[in-house]
TrEMBL record:
Chain coiled-coil ranges: 131-158
Name of the protein in its database record: Recombinase domain-containing protein
Domain Recombinase: residue ranges: 2-46
Keyword Coiled coil: yes
Matching InterPro entries: DNA_bind_recomb_sf, DNA_bind_recombinase_dom, SSR_resolvase
Coiled coil recorded as keyword: yes
Native species: Nonomuraea africana
Organism lineage string: Bacteria, Bacillati, Actinomycetota, Actinomycetes, Streptosporangiales
PANTHER family per the UniProt record, alphabetical: DNA-INVERTASE FROM LAMBDOID PROPHAGE, SERINE RECOMBINASE PINE-RELATED
UniProt keyword terms in alphabetical order: Coiled coil, DNA recombination, DNA-binding
Gene3D superfamilies: Putative Large Serine Recombinase, Chain B, Domain 2 (3.90.1750.20)
Length: 258
């Protein structure tokens, strides 16, 4: 029932019809009864593959396809096949690699310190309403992208047709995501800080207890970017001090709203 309401364009005052096999929305002559931004959000949520019970592709690594390579801008991916996992630039050059356990630990420190700030929620929620139209556009584009993906998977369109569409959609999606800061605080973030009164140890314990998908939600809310720089210091990092120094040198980041 919820699904039917949420995916029916009538509720945002629009009429859907089909043109060349595509769904086209035009303004209907009735008033919208639900908020348009919410409508697209719900529609994307319901189409989200992670909602399926098997949860394919559930994130296993904290920074994979979130953090980027500082050299070429490609996402980081996991580099396996060694005694310890590493993150590796997923671009053609594989510009950088860095130990995963150390990097995740370092990011965890940053997160907990940030959440121990008293005004963290005010900081995160400041935004202006002029971004509303952009938010609607973003949700629409995400819906089109998901639709194209679904059509390719069910072989209604070719891989080639999908790539064309993807090339058109993704840059704008990325641009809008950059412009639109998160304005809602995920529940997990509230759980981390509730009654902690800035106590770092409490926040830290809770952070460690979270699974990776939940930790990634927190990162998405807090960070504008996390980038891995090329190594400057060659050789072994043995002591804690050496490791920390190396991580400070190599991990660049930007907070949201700062
Ligand atoms: Zn790279």
């Amino acid at each position: 029932m919820l699904r039917r309401i949420c995916t029916n364009a009538v509720y945002i005052g629009k009429r859907a019809y089909e043109e060349d096999g595509k769904e086209v929305l035009v303004k209907g002559d009735w008033p919208a009864i639900v908020d348009e931004e919410l409508f697209w959000k719900a529609r994307n949520l319901l189409a989200d593959p992670s909602r399926k019970t098997t949860r394919p592709g559930r994130a296993k690594y904290l920074l994979a396809f979130f953090g980027t390579c500082d050299v070429c801008g490609a996402y980081l991916a996991r580099l396996g096949g060694r005694e310890v996992n590493r993150y590796r630039c997923n671009g053609p050059k594989g510009c950088v690699t860095i130990r995963m356990d150390w990097t995740d630990m370092f990011i965890g420190h940053l997160v907990c310190q940030r959440l121990a700030k008293k005004d963290i929620f005010e900081l995160l929620t400041k935004h202006d309403d002029t971004k509303k139209d952009l938010a609607i556009e973003l949700e629409k584009l995400r819906a089109s992208y998901q639709e194209a993906l679904d059509m390719m998977e069910s072989e209604e369109i070719s891989l080639r047709a999908f790539s064309v569409k993807e090339k058109k959609l993704l840059p704008r999606i990325a641009e809008l995501e950059e412009t639109l800061r998160p304005v809602t605080i995920p529940k997990v973030l509230e759980d981390l800080t509730r009654d902690a009164r800035g106590n770092l140890a409490t926040i830290r314990t809770r952070w460690m207890a979270l699974d990776i998908p939940a930790q990634r939600d927190v990162l998405r809310t807090l960070f504008k970017s996390i980038r891995i720089r090329k190594t400057k210091t060659l050789g072994q990092h043995k002591t804690d001090e050496q490791i920390e120094y190396m991580l400070r040198e190599r991990i660049a980041f930007e907070w949201v709203n700062e």
